Amino acid sequence: MNLSTIRELDPIIHAPIRLAILSVLMASDGATFGFLRDAIETSDGNLSTHLTKLEVAGYVTINKSFVGKKPQTICAITELGRKSYLNYFNRLEEIVQNKGANTPI
Amino acid sequence: MNLSTIRELDPIIHAPIRLAILSVLMASDGATFGFLRDAIETSDGNLSTHLTKLEVAGYVTINKSFVGKKPQTICAITELGRKSYLNYFNRLEEIVQNKGANTPI
User: Distance between alpha carbon A99 and the CA centroid of its chain, in Å?
Assistant: First the structure.
């Protein structure tokens, strides 16, 4: 097991809820706030907190607009977000693959 | 991507430093505090904090004794710790394997 690979896992992505958010966004050109909240099964407040962290890191964009008189929030993953997500998964894959080498079981 | 698999990742193990500690302990019958600290490249205080969390969860045992006049702390992974670690890795493997199914890249 390469311990430094574990320690270098991107902390922005490593939190399960943010990993879930990015996983949904990776598969789409953009998702509404409501769609994300329901897909991830979390509260408005919790989703909002983690989306802000992802936005500050430059991994997602959050665009607010109106559809008629109804406000709509569209979240999308950025190019940096996509790259960081794939990079994170490459490390995760390495960790998973190397597991056997270090364990007697 | 199965989002519930992501959300169900054991939070005790998911923290990178605790994952690193357990990875070292999985490969041994027991390690001294100093060995662990050097392998993981962390401080005494930080290692101590996370070992306590693992001990409270029942994943490791921490035994203090004396070798001559020198105090020695031996840390070892428990059966529950081993099972939980392998379970965690099974979920991680599932997440890594399912990545492709959900991403257009």
Answer: 24
Quick check: is B36 in a domain? yes
CB proximity under 8 Å: B 42-81 to A: none
Mean pLDDT of A70-83: 96
Do the domain assignments include residue A54?
A: yes
> Which residue among B41, B93, B102 sits closest to A96, beta carbon to beta carbon?
B93
Q: Residue B84 is part of a domain; what is its CATH number?
A: 1.10.10.10
Contact B27, B39 (CB under 8 A): no
B99 touches chain A (CB under 8 A): yes
State the greatest distance between any 2 C-alpha atoms of chain B, in Å, as a whole number. Answer: 62
Q: Do the domain assignments include residue B78?
A: yes
**How many domains is chain B partitioned into structurally?**
1
Q: Does B14 touch chain A (CB under 8 A)?
A: yes
Contact check, Cβ <8 Å, A104/B23:
no
Could you read off the pLDDT tens digit of each residue along chain B, which spans 105 residues? Answer: 578 889 889 999 999 999 999 999 998 889 999 999 999 999 999 999 999 999 999 999 999 999 899 999 999 999 999 999 999 999 999 988 877 455 443
Residues 6+ apart with CB under 8 A from A68: none
Owning domain of residue A45: 31-88
Mutate to test the interface with A, among B9, B12, B17, B19 (most CBs of A within 10 A): B19
User: Residue A74, class by beta-carbon neighbours within 10 Å (0-12 exposed, 13-18 middle, 19+ buried)?
Assistant: middle
Q: What is the pLDDT of residue B101?
A: 52
